[in-house]
Amino acid sequence: MNHLVEAFDLLLDAESWSGPGGFGARMLEHLWYTALALIISSAIALPVGLAVGHTGRGRALAVISSGLVRALPTLGLITLAALFVGIGLTAPMIAFVVLAVPSILAGAYAGVESVSPATTDAAKAQGMSGWQVLIKVEIPLGLPLIIGGLRNATLQVVATATLAAYVGAGGLGRQLFLGLRTQDYPLMLAASLAVILLAIILDACFEFSQRLLRRLLGLV
Amino acid sequence: MEWILNNLPRITDLTLAHLLLALPAVASAFLIALPIAWAANRVRPLREVVVSGTGLLYAIPSLPLFIVLPIILGTGVRDTFNVIVALTIFGLALMVRSAADALDSVDSGVRLASTAVGYSPAKRFFSVELPLAGPALLAGLRVVSVSTISLVSVSAVLGVQSLGSLFTDGFERGIVPSIAAGILMTALLALLLDVLLIAAGRVIMPWARGGGR
């Protein structure tokens, strides 16, 4: 229990949050990694996922890839990438994208697919083109599930970003591994609690926006 | 390839260590999730709270949990028990929801009929509801087993021996085949366990041909 008290002392001490290597800077780094990974992955996965959902083609591929990624050990992915591209942010970023793409893809296609065929047929009968059906009907109605995919991807990346420090990048993992190497359990603990807090806050934000959307769309 | 052949005994040892961490976690997640799911279904107002609450546990990143858990358990960070409990928590996060949905999917007519022909609640659960929910439970268990096998390796950065040690050793000494072997073995192990679960499902539930999906 003493360790826990010391960890909280660290977390509540303004000193440990300030400076270039402080918790504040590391947390921003952690968030920046997460955001960058999500932007890159979304740029790849959203168009593909929407296309799969809209056309119904390649569905099996989307299902298999999201199953496969669950079986992929994240640490193996990061270390392998690090041996090929060297120490730094590139290796973890590759791993983040590999982990995030299937979740976003699955969310996008599931979102489009969840729209009832009667609704899309009605939209077509009104004279909408394929693009208009996608943009004005399928995407808005599928938005909660599309965001759900982004949510899963975010969770994966926030967790995995902790391992980025293992291959020489920054983020809250820095403090964690520093504590591990110097046998400083309170520091490890403080870093861990900070990561957990960050993950739960991000998840809660997604939960909130999904609920809000469902209500706005009248899906509840 | 040569590296793998030269290090076969070590890879075998690590695979066994990996299984000894993963299997107890998968089994206990399944066994603990069942009563929780059953109780959650019985007390309707609590169902969503329990199911979402356990699901929220999945939001906790794995490495931090390995480090925070010893505070509660009183173990060391490198203790096998610590790792197994953490993996069980992740398993529960996935399994409680699928078990609750599986048990819920049993037709209420069937439930009423079995009560009407004289089944006691306990007997009804074990001989009617559980078998009928079986295929859906198996589907949930398969997801838990795959994700647990891949989660184990993260504990290697703390110094716990598993296939993940092939990643940390390989990274520190710059041996690509070591990492490749680790990824390959993790995937093989996940596949093997999945096939075993499907086979077990066919034996235990011969009526549900075609698997749990």
UniProtKB/TrEMBL annotation, chain B:
<keyword id="KW-1133">Transmembrane helix</keyword>
<keyword id="KW-0813">Transport</keyword>
<feature type="transmembrane region" description="Helical">
    <location>
        <begin position="49"/>
        <end position="73"/>
    </location>
</feature>
<dbReference type="InterPro" id="IPR035906">
    <property type="entry name" value="MetI-like_sf"/>
</dbReference>
<comment type="similarity">
    <text>Belongs to the binding-protein-dependent transport system permease family.</text>
</comment>
<keyword id="KW-0472">Membrane</keyword>
<feature type="domain" description="ABC transmembrane type-1">
    <location>
        <begin position="15"/>
        <end position="197"/>
    </location>
</feature>
<feature type="transmembrane region" description="Helical">
    <location>
        <begin position="79"/>
        <end position="96"/>
    </location>
</feature>
<keyword id="KW-0812">Transmembrane</keyword>
<dbReference type="InterPro" id="IPR051204">
    <property type="entry name" value="ABC_transp_perm/SBD"/>
</dbReference>
<feature type="transmembrane region" description="Helical">
    <location>
        <begin position="179"/>
        <end position="204"/>
    </location>
</feature>
<dbReference type="GO" id="GO:0005886">
    <property type="term" value="C:plasma membrane"/>
</dbReference>
<feature type="transmembrane region" description="Helical">
    <location>
        <begin position="132"/>
        <end position="159"/>
    </location>
</feature>
<dbReference type="InterPro" id="IPR000515">
    <property type="entry name" value="MetI-like"/>
</dbReference>
<dbReference type="Pfam" id="PF00528">
    <property type="entry name" value="BPD_transp_1"/>
</dbReference>
<dbReference type="GO" id="GO:0055085">
    <property type="term" value="P:transmembrane transport"/>
</dbReference>
<feature type="transmembrane region" description="Helical">
    <location>
        <begin position="16"/>
        <end position="37"/>
    </location>
</feature>
<protein>
    <submittedName>
        <fullName>ABC transporter permease subunit</fullName>
    </submittedName>
</protein>
<dbReference type="GO" id="GO:0031460">
    <property type="term" value="P:glycine betaine transport"/>
</dbReference>
